[in-house]
Amino acid sequence: MPYLVLELRQRKRNNLVGNKMSYFTEKTDRRLFFCPCCGERGHMSAYLIHLLNKVREGLGKPMTVNSGYRCKKHNKKVGGKDNSAHRRGTAADIECTNSHDRFIIIKLAYEAGFKRLKPYSTFIHLDVDMELPQEVMWGD
């Protein structure tokens, strides 16, 4: 088997993104990869995980994922749109309850390459869904 394939498999096994450890894995962040109501596993965007890791690295402290993948039933229950990026595994809601951290996370997310952001009072929605409008930040 070619060396590159073996190395990529080893990195995946060790939760590495590039040469760095991934902060977000199925073991540590079940709310990102699995629907909370039924446990259905979603296919999460590797690009989303990559950008979340960049934000987490810049922040210098753990980030809590409130919501990642959602099944259709759970998405409806929480008021998500039919076309929700959470349904496609391209969005995450990051817990944030103070204005200073909110500012820093939004700044880092923008610098990392997120093109879709929505701050709420207790979390920040970040997504990389290319099927939805780009370069937007919206609020209630």
In short:
By secondary structure, the chain is of the alpha+beta class. The chain has helices at 3-13, 30-33, 46-59, 72-77, 99-112, and strands at 16-17, 20-21, 65-67, 91-95, 116-119, 123-127, 136-137.
Largest sheet: 5 strands, mixed
Largest beta sheet: strand ordering: 3-4-6-5-7
Low-pLDDT runs of 5+ residues are 1-19
What is the subunit arrangement here?
single chain
Keywords:
Muramoyl-pentapeptide Carboxypeptidase, domain 2, alpha+beta, five-stranded mixed beta sheet, 7 strands, 16% strand, 140 residues
Provide structural commentary.
The protein is of the alpha+beta class and 140 residues long. It has a single domain (31-137), classed as Muramoyl-pentapeptide Carboxypeptidase, domain 2 (2-Layer Sandwich). It contains five helices and seven strands. The strands form two sheets. The protein has a five-stranded mixed β-sheet, with helices on one face. A two-stranded antiparallel ribbon has the order 1-2. The model is unreliable at 1-19 (pLDDT under 50).
Indicate the topology.
Elements lengths: L2 H11 L2 E2 L2 E2 L8 H4 L12 H14 L5 E3 L4 H6 L13 E5 L3 H14 L3 E4 L3 E5 L8 E2 L3
Parallel strand pairs: 5-7
Antiparallel strand pairs: 1-2, 3-4, 4-6, 5-6
